[in-house]
Amino acid sequence: MIENNLWHPVAQAHEVADAPLGVQLLGQSLVLWRGPQGQVSAFVDRCPHRGARLSMGRVENGHLECPYHGWQFAGSGQCTRVPALPEFTPPPSQCVKAFEAQEAYGLVWVRLEQGVQALPVPAFAAEADAHLRKLNCGPYDVAASAPRIIENFLDMSHFGFVHEGWLGSRDATAIGSYAVQATPTGVLATGCKAVQPLSNLHSTRAAEVEYTYEVTAPYAAVLTKIPEAGSTRAGWHESIALFICPVTPETSRVWFRLAVADFDSPDEQLQQFQHTIFCQDQPVLESQQPKCLPLDPRAEMHSAADRLSSAYRRYLKASGITFGVC
Ligand code: FES
Ligand SMILES: [Fe+2]
Asked: pLDDT band for position 132 (50/70/90)?
């Protein structure tokens, strides 16, 4: 499964503290924990001795200790101690399966198998811009597949209905032409325009907003929106990255990473705006049937306004993605 070779976000970095944390990725249960130098390790959440859940254990002397018979494991997965046999040195074969893990964007990322793809870095976006303030919003546990959630993020024609009075209105629903192109890591759409009553936290009036969207990995995307001058704070700039953990084919854990030219509003206020918008999306997302995103173009109907989502579906198909699609 090609998804196993990709990096996926599994938890907020600060959640992995003194105690082990159980998470789920691509249908697998994992345990995350921090070693003595603060490095994060990710193991199968199942002790190789008698199958107990390692995330119910604890971190002892820089090792992960199983809750059942106290076997201890180093960050590499090697068993280092069997308390019932204090003199015994476990051989290299006595180990738990460990995965690659790293921290980025305030999240812990894991991949289940070796791969060539780097983290889904938003190429054009503000993450590269050290001047913008970054903060995360989430997690949201959503009963929808990761590809359905990405597609919703790329979709402008729902603004007037799902986000009426915020990102759209029923009397301005037309979607103009925009450009879509394939990139080495996904899809890029430019020149997307929407009239929005309340485009951002500081909007003072309805305005036309120009969007750029980029899919940077099968379950990651980023947008940048630039509102008409004079409709919000001078110098306002924002990018929103969407990072999704594909938990099961039909459930996901979602984070937004905001990058904004706003250095004084409290975190909560910036997060609240994004929270309000996503809470409008979530019930519709969870209502969609089938829950997995159909990649056969004949399975659902499309309009010309949907060409970004059609390009996203073609990209998933060409990438060989099977998790969360049908
Ligand atoms: S089940 Fe883990 S030590 Fe026995
Ligand atoms: Fe939406």
From this structure: confident
Q: Give the residue whose CA is nearest to atom 4 of ligand 1.
A: 69
Q: How confident is the model at residue 152 (pLDDT cuts 50, 70, 90)?
A: very high
pTM over 0.90: yes
- Output the CA 275–ligand 2 centroid distance in Å: 11
Ligand 1 atom nearest the C-alpha of 67 is: 2
Q: What is the DSSP letter of 168?
A: B
Tell me: the pLDDT tens digits for 273-282? 999 999 999 9
43, 45, 49, 82, best to mutate for ligand 1 pocket (most atoms within 8 Å of CB): 49
What is the Cβ-side half-sphere exposure of residue 11, based on CA atoms within 13 angstroms?
Answer: 22
Q: What percent of the chain has pLDDT over 70?
A: 97
Query: Mean pLDDT throughout 98-118?
Result: 94
Tell me the three-class secondary structure of 206-217, residue by residue. CEEEEEEEEEEE
Cβ of 158: how many Cβ atoms within 10 Å? Answer: 15
Could you tell me if 227 and 209 are in contact, meaning their C-beta atoms sit under 8 angstroms apart?
A: yes
In angstroms, rounded to a whole number, what is the distance separating the alpha carbons of residues 257 and 134? 7
53 touches ligand 1 (CB under 6 Å): no
